[in-house]
Amino acid sequence: MLPLAAGNCLAQNTWICGRYLSTRQGDILAALRQHITLTLVAVVVGLLIAIPVALVVRRWRWSEGPILGFTSVLYTLPSIALFGLLVPFTGLTTRTVEIGLVIYSLVILVRNILAGLDGVPAEVKEAARGMGYSSGRMLLQVELPLALPTIVAGLRIATVSTIALVTVGAVIGNGGLGDLIYDALGSNFKAEVLTASVLCVALAVVADLLLLVLQRSLTPWRRAAR
Amino acid sequence: MAAGGPVSALRETATWLTDGGHWGGGEGIAHRLLEHVGLTVVAVGLAALVAVPLGLWLGHIRRGGTLAINVSNVGRAVPTFAVLVLLAVGPLGIGNTATVVALVLFALPPLLVNAYVGVSEVDRDITESARGMGLSSGQILRSVELPLAAPLLMTGLRIATVQVIATATIAALIGGGGLGRFVVDGFAQHDTGQLVGGALLVALLALAVEALLAVLQRRVDPVRAADRRTPPARTGAPAVQVTSRERP
Question: ipTM, 2 decimals?
Answer without folding.
Answer: 0.85
